[in-house]
Every structure is written in C-alpha cells, then in structure tokens.
Amino acid sequence: MHKGVGVSPGVVVGVAFRVESALGQAEPRYLERPEDAGAEIAAFDRAVEEAAGELEGLIRRVAQELGPSAAEIFQTHLQILNDPGLLSRVHSVIEEQQLTALSALQQVMQGYVSQFARIEQEYFRERLNDLRDVISRIGSHLTGSREPARGEGTESRDGDQPVVLVAHEILPSQAMSLGEMPIAGIVTEVGGTTSHAAILARSRGIPAVSGVEGIMNVVASGDPVVVDGREGHVIVRPNAEETSFYRKIQREFFHLKDSLIANRDEPARSLDGTRVELLANINNLADVHSASTVGATGVGLFRTEYLFLTHHNVPSEEEQFEYYKQIVLNSPNQTATIRTLDLGGDKTVPYLGKRYEPNPFMGWRSIRIFLENPKLMVTQIRAILRAGKYGKVSMLFPMISTLEELKRVNKIVQETRDNLKREGVPYADDVKTGVMVEVPAAAICIDAILRETNFISIGSNDLIQYLVASDRDNPKVAHLCEPLSPAIFRVLQMILDACNRTGTPVTLCGEMAGQPRSALVLFGMGLRRFSMSPAFIPTVKNLLGAVTTAQAERFAHHVLQLSTSDEIRAYLSARLREVSSTLEVLDAV
Ligand code: PEP
Ligand code: MG
Predict the structure, then answer these.
(1) Same domain, 243 and 186
(2) Which ligand has the nearest atom to the CA of 461?
(3) How many CB atoms lie under 10 A from the CB of residue 257?
(4) Residue 470 CA to ligand 1 centre (angstroms)
(5) Element spanning 245, H or E
(6) 264: in domain
(7) Considering every ligand atom, which ligand is closest to the CA of 509?
(8) Is residue 268 in a domain?
(9) Any bridge partners for residue 347, and if so which?
(10) Hey, how many other C-beta atoms are within 10 angstroms of the C-beta on 262?
C-alpha cells in the first residue's frame, strides 16, 4: 500500500497507464551500431510529426470548447516544436554522441535546464516549463506511451478495465488534453490538492491521489491498481481479497452517484425544510456545463486566473468581457460570482514580471499584485461590470488582509463605475462586491471588513494553510492542513456569527464545503451558502436533506467542545453514519 494525499474522493479498481515523461529516464542509452543513427533520426522526426498533429488537434478542440485564447499556450508549444534549432540539436546529438533519440532528447533538455537554472526571472522558468512540456510530448510519442486518445484506453489487456493514469506529475497541457479522455483514476508522485491533476480529477469526479512518492518505480502499464481517493491510498497489484473489497466500494460509489443526481432539479433543503444554496466553483467555460448538470443554482466562484494562465499576455478588456459574458449567460440562473485575478502562490504567468520568491504563498500574490498594477485591475473590473448586464453578477476580491487594502479596492471600483458611466459604456450598477476571507488577519477583524463589503466568501483552503502555517500543496505537511480541526472550526464560527449578526450574505467556497463531514458542521454553524466543485453537489444536497437543522446544530455545538482533530473526525464519522450510511462511502472514515 502506498500513501499519498487523497485529492478527489471515490474508489476505483483499474489498470495502470503510465504517463511517461521524457525526463524520467536517468541512464543515457547508446546506439548499438553507428549506422542506426539514420533510423533513430527518422523515428525522432516521426515522433515530432505525431506530436505536432496532436497539438494541432488540441488547439482546435480547446479553441472550440474554451475559446481561441485558451488555446494560445498550445500555439506556443507548436512553435517550440517547429523550432529548427531544437530539432537539429537532437539530430546532432544522435549522430555525434551515438545516443538513442530518447536519450538525445533528454540530453538536450538537460542542456536547457542548466542554461535556465542560472536565470532567476519567472518568465524564463515558465519558458522552461513550456519546453519541458513539448519535449515530454515528443518523448511519449517516441516511446509509444502517448496519452490514450478519446475512445481508446478503456480496453486493456485485462478486458474492459478502467484506466488509471500514473504519472510523476501532470503538466498543464496534459491536464487539458486529458480533459475528456476515458480515465477512471489519477495517481501522481508530486502535487497537492490544487495541482492541475487534482483540479482535473475533481472537475470530472474521478478518484485521485497525489504525492505518492516513488510510485513510478513500482508500477508498469497494465498492472492492476486500486486508487482510494478518500484515504489517499494506492495499492499496486492488489491481492484477491483487496480487489474484491475495493470493487464492492467502487460499485456502491458508482451506484450512489447515479442515484444522487435524481433530485437535481429540486431546491436543496434540510430534512426540516431549511433552504440552502449549493453553488459551483468553476475554472472555465466547460465547468459551467457541469455546474448545470448537477443542479447547482449558480456559480459561487469563478477563478478567472485560469483565463490568464492560458494566455501569453494580459487578455484585453474585450476578450475578458466576452469570456465573462459567456460564463454569466451559461451559469445556472445566470448567476455568477467572478473572482478577480488570484495569481501568485502556485499559479504564475510570465508577463507580470514576477520574480523568484522563497515563499510564494506568503509573497507577492493575488490582490497584492493586482493593486500594484492599476491598469490590469481596472481592465478586469471594467470587463466584469460590463458582463454584469447579462445576469446576476458579483465581484469577489481574493486575499484581502487589511481594511486599508479593501478601501483601496472599493475606491478603484467606484472610480471605474464612474468612468464607465461617463463614457456611456453599458454596465451593471448593481454588481455586488465581496471579500474572500482567507487570511487570518481578515478573519480576526471581520467586524471592520463587514462594514465595507456587500458579502463574504470564506476561502477555507487558504485560511487553513495560513492558520496552521503549512503549505497546502506540500505533502510533507499535508496532515496539518486538516479542515476537521478545532482551530479552523472556531475561526469559522466567529466569521459566520459576525456575518449572520449583520445580515451579510456569506458563502464558503473552499474544498471543505463539499466534504460530507465538514458540510454537516458548517450547516450546523449557520452556513446557508456552499460553493464547491460541481462533482460534490449531489452528495452535499442529499446529505443536508437527511439531517434536521437542530440535529446539525447539536453536532456543531459538540464539535466546538472537542480539542483534537482525531476526536472531531471520530465524532463526525459516527454522526455521518447515523444520518446517512450510504453517503459515508463518499468520504474517508
Ligand atoms: C480558497 O482559498 O479556499 C479558495 C476557494 O480559493 P483557491 O483554492 O482558488 O485559493
Ligand atoms: Mg484562496
């Protein structure tokens, strides 16, 4: 059994499919005879051609599904691939050093790595990532281990077994290209709950485990494998007993997911009729459709940085406006909360001139970048206010730490509205503005924050990592980023009480909103607006429908008396079992 971090719940028993990285092979391999160089070069050229064809297909598909701007990153990859410099370098390494094409490719990549290692600027680091991505793609064509194409891959030599991707890491372009493939589980060696693999897995509702060190050394393509995304466990070549145990859970899980969706058109309410709003967290236009499919009543969090991550320059006001307009028009009830740019931390773009920082999560990120770039900020605020004409739109500011920051933001929003009005540009004057409470300082001073905002959205992912001083993406300290903990619940209760006392609408949009045990407590503490990955909405809807308000209040009251995470987990697991023994299967016990 291999232990990692469960990043998307559920269980699957399937067969492994290794996603090779061209950088993965350590020892260089030499040609057996000098005359093999010609054939090796031909094989390399073929792999480049196939990779180019794959990228062209990807550009078409992404442009169609997410808009032309989202495909820009792949255009760049195609340019890199067509760079004669890269190709001739590999050709000469094959000829002169008598290396196989794959080893030559690796060596060329290593050359780039050492060249770039001396440069600190984020821009060059990002370029290196693009190069790495392209070289991996060529490498996977060379080894014949490219990603399964749509419609293939579910068939394996073991019959009709589901495919589990196993990779060192999933690169951004891979996450995109895997978007619609028939994958039933994901396991990676690196990455945490917010990695590309995790986001992909959650948006598709498939089990995933990240941070499984060394898994690539022990698994071969075709190996039977169990992925338990609730517990963060992976079993390679399980025995018969393990296989049948996990198959049973998997069957229950699938069955449950189907039955849970049956009430998607009914409003979400507790057993005694208390109404709750279940909203969706989305990252792009494709996610909006998942939100409607599961019965979300609106978009509670649109992370706009994903639009910026796929561009090679700041998207223009028109581009942003068109994209946000489409998001709003396609959102359930045309209701969407659009969050302004939350870059930094693990999400960087080269064009903002971000430099290397020893502690990026504590550094120049989010609203801090935004406030230093007035043009960037005004462009996005204008686009959001204009998109507000097409539905019920709210604008949300991430990572606010102080009242001074909030006052500055509010002033800029007001000036932007005034300018739009003066220019006669159509915009919505009723767009509400809100603050993400995800920095402990803002939580502690919530009373002051509430005087300057229309609504609150609690970003528990960040709030937890900052409260316990533990990087949320670092598997070494993942155990500390535990939502079921006394400190978190006390802070949350404080925020919820302050909001409810003043009648300020409050949503919680971190991952814990979609986790059954924490959702029970949050409801008991008075939370009525939950925003989560669309895949979790059916579970939470059915769970809250099985509990009365008074019951949940009792649970919350009890949890607040407990002093360790273990006690809280044990207590809530028992309550979850009582409330809904079937839903328990969707969460770790
Ligand atoms: C959060 O911090 O809880 C949140 C929802 O935002 P993100 O995960 O994008 O930081
Ligand atoms: Mg956050």
Answers:
(1) yes
(2) 1
(3) 16
(4) 15
(5) helix 240-260
(6) no
(7) 1
(8) no
(9) 344
(10) 10
Amino acid in the structure at residue 247: R
User: Distance, CA 119 to ligand 1 centroid (Å)?
Assistant: 30
445 counts as catalytic:
no
Beta bridge partners of 442: none
Instruction: Please identify which of the residues 91, 141, 196, 233 carries the catalytic annotation.
Output: 196
Q: Let me know whether 381 and 480 are in one domain.
A: no
* Domain span at 41: 34-144
Do 446 and 469 lie in a common domain?
Answer: yes
CATH number of the domain that 133 lies in? Answer: 1.10.274.10
Q: Is residue 196 part of a domain?
A: yes
Domain termination site, one of 258, 289, 304: 258
CA-nearest residue for atom 3, ligand 1, is: 459
Burial environment of residue 124 by CB neighbours within 10 A (0 to 12, 13 to 18, 19 or more): middle
Q: Are 374 and 311 in contact (CB under 8 A)?
A: no
Do residues 506 and 337 lie in contact, with contact meaning Cβ atoms separated by under 8 Å?
Answer: no
pTM for the model stands at 0.74
169: nearest Cα among 203, 200, 202, 204: 200
Per-residue tens of pLDDT for the chain, all 589 residues:
899 888 888 899 999 988 766 555 456 788 888 889 999 999 999 999 998 998 888 888 777 766 676 677 788 888 888 888 888 999 999 999 999 998 898 888 888 777 776 665 555 666 777 788 888 888 878 876 554 433 333 333 344 578 899 988 876 666 666 655 678 899 998 877 666 677 778 777 789 999 898 898 898 888 899 999 888 899 999 999 899 888 888 887 777 777 778 888 999 999 999 999 999 999 888 789 889 988 999 999 999 988 887 777 889 999 999 999 999 999 999 999 999 999 877 777 767 776 678 888 899 899 999 999 999 999 999 999 999 999 999 999 999 999 999 999 999 999 999 999 999 999 999 999 999 999 999 999 999 999 999 999 999 999 999 999 998 777 788 788 889 999 999 999 999 999 999 999 999 999 899 989 999 999 999 999 999 988 889 989 999 999 999 999 999 999 999 999 999 999 999 999 999 876 666 654 3
| Residues in contact with ligand 1 (CB, 6 Å cut-off) | 194, 301, 303, 342, 438, 459-462, 509-510
Ligand 1 atom showing the smallest separation from residue 303 Cα: 9
For the CA of 438, the nearest atom of ligand 1: 2
Which residue carries 């040609």 as its tokens?
A: 31
Pairing of strands 2-3, 233-236: antiparallel
Question: Which atom of ligand 1 is the closest one to the Cα of 398?
Answer: 6
